[in-house]
Amino acid sequence: MTVSTNVLSRLRGEILKGEIAPGIKINVDRIRTSYGVSLSPLREALSQLVAERLVESDENRGFRAAPASRDNLQEIVWLRSSLEVMALERAIKLGDDAWEAEIVSTLHRLEKLSYIKDRNAAQANEDWEYWHRQFHTALIKACGAPLLVQFCNSLHDHADRYRRTYLKGNRQTRDSHEEHRDIAAAALKRDTAEACRLMTKHITRTGADILAAMPAD
Which residues of 170-204 are buried (b: 16+ CB within 10 A; e: fewer)? Predict the structure, then answer.
């Protein structure tokens, strides 16, 4: 991993976790010192995050994490439910045995985390986030449209930022494990209509949970 790639990954992580809250100015000097890097890779990372719409640039005021709003969240949920369901539909049609195996294995890893005791809570949460992303990606990656998968992953980033900022780890407000199991089961049965219905419900319910936790604009 190059210095620039590492800086980009770390800074994106701070934003997605809500450690740099929406709308907050990014202290370039603090990050440069903390990361132990020069200004060049940091500015390169910030430029990439501006392109991803996770950071906003103001020539006179520097950089800040993209602000959050209820309207923006609703747009993210609408786009994600549309595109991820589209990708899932194609993946069910085109997916092979390897696609099925990856769904099963990532779901197993995701669910297994709930039964491991005596672990550092912060690390356990990061592990859950990692396998949650891997599971959602596994469901759609066989769609045969890399650009569509890229769009879905970007929308997942934006949705995660809202979830991790406003739900603060309260991801078990409902039985998400059951929802994941049901989506996987329908996909593996090649029941396209049911899998897409469940995925839409899963995404929109998460959006509703976040909206309920957000302050009024």
Answer: ebeeeebeebbebbbebbbeeebeebbebbbebbe
Find all residues with CB under 8 Å of 127, minimum gap 6, and list them.
Answer: 113
- At residue 60, the pLDDT reads 75
Would you say domain 3-65 falls under CATH 1.10.10.10? yes
**pLDDT value of residue 89:** 98
62 vs 67, higher pLDDT: 67
Q: Match 């996909």 to its residue by tokens.
A: 187
Which residues are within 8 A (CB) of 143 and not within 5 positions of it... i.e. 6 or more apart? 86, 87, 88, 90, 91, 94, 149
Number of continuous H segments (helices) and E segments (strands) in the chain: 9, 2
Domain extent listing, the chain? 3-65, 70-213
Confidence of residue 116 (pLDDT cuts 50, 70, 90): low
pTM: 0.88
CATH architecture of 70-213: Up-down Bundle (1.20)
- Cβ pair 57, 46 in contact under 8 A: yes
The model's confidence at residue 169, banded by pLDDT at 50, 70 and 90, is low
Domains 3-65 and 70-213 share a fold: no
What type of residue is 100? E
